[in-house]
Amino acid sequence: MDDKISLVAQQLVKGGRNVVFTGAGISTESGIPDFRSKGGIWDKYRPVYFDEFMSSKDARIEYWKQKAELYPDLVNARPNPAHMSVAGLYETGLIEAVITQNIDGLHQESGIPDENVIELHGNTLRARCVTCGKAASLHEIHRRIEKGDLAPECECGGYIKSDTISFGQAMPEDELERATELARNSDFFMVVGSTLLVHPAAAMPAHAKENGSFLVIVNLSETPYDNVSDVLIRGKAGAVLPEISKEVRCLSMDVPQTIK
Ligand code: NAD
Fold it and tell me: Which of 128, 203, 214, 237 has the most CB within a 10 Å radius?
């Protein structure tokens, strides 16, 4: 394990274009369950597809019921040591951007500016009318649901939905394009906490590899990219990422200073 951490740290400090790609697994230690692990969200709920949301009030009620149940975990969640380590690497200039499948806003809360967090699946702290596009905060919509408005609608008559991408809904084009460009041009690409099963987001490591990028995977369970990764670490993100940061700090201190 120490050898792997050291190899990852060496690649990070090399000075290339370094990108981090995160999934739900980076946030489980913040108290937000992932989708596919045992006890994860799909053990409890059935996903509401976008066309069902648009065509059935019952589906919209079910959609917001699920969101309401996840609301306390979401509002109480704080960035954990894995998020903070990524933010520390960003702050020292070693990471160009974070591409995330997460919708919890925890990378931004850890200190990474919005413009350098590419959210492929949106952000659940926002809600939006699917017709006129007017934005609302999740808190405001949650208050309406608590008062009995179980499938909230906009003043224009459109349906209000969390500002996230549901199954069957188109991906945000700008974010997808930017993420693909970042992955294609990366020298170092580190996946943290993702099964790498959801496409097209899961194609990002392939784009990175096509460029000869150094691929690191930190995940508790198997992924389809394990056998093409350069370093595979089966461990908890909240333990592994701080170790990587620590090693990076040691390496940075070891760099001989130029004598002027
Ligand atoms: P996933 O549920 O498919 O996989 C999570 C992966 O993380 C699993 O392989 C699991 O073994 C691993 N994992 C769990 N805890 C870990 C930990 N502490 N350290 C390291 N690995 C850990 O999640 P995914 O691949 O991100 O699936 C994509 C979908 O999940 C996305 O659409 C995303 O929007 C959604 N999602 C997001 C959140 C969030 O924003 N926090 C939560 C649940 C689901």
Answer: 237
Domain boundaries defined on the chain: 1-32+79-121+172-260, 33-76+122-164
CATH class of 1-32+79-121+172-260: alpha beta
pLDDT digits (tens, 9 = 90+) for 71-115: 888 899 999 999 999 999 999 999 999 999 999 999 999 999 999
State in Å: Cα 142 to ligand 1 middle. 24
Q: What is the DSSP string of the chain?
A: -HHHHHHHHHHHHT-S-EEEEE-GGGTGGGT---SSSTTSHHHH-PPPPHHHHHH-HHHHHHHHHHHHHHHHHHHH----HHHHHHHHHHHTT---EEEE---S-HHHHTT--GGGEEETTEEEEEEEETTT--EEEHHHHHHHHHTT-SS-B-TTSPBEEEEEPPTTSPPPHHHHHHHHHHHHT-SEEEEES--S-STTGGGHHHHHHHTT-EEEEE-SS--TTGGG-SEEE-S-HHHHHHHHHHHHHHHHHHSPPPP-
State the catalytic residues.
121
CATH superfamily of 33-76+122-164: SIR2/SIRT2 'Small Domain' (3.30.1600.10)
Is the predicted pLDDT of residue 259 greater than 70, yes or no?
A: no
pTM (2 d.p.): 0.92
Regarding the beta carbon of 70 and ligand 1, being less than 6 Å apart is answered no
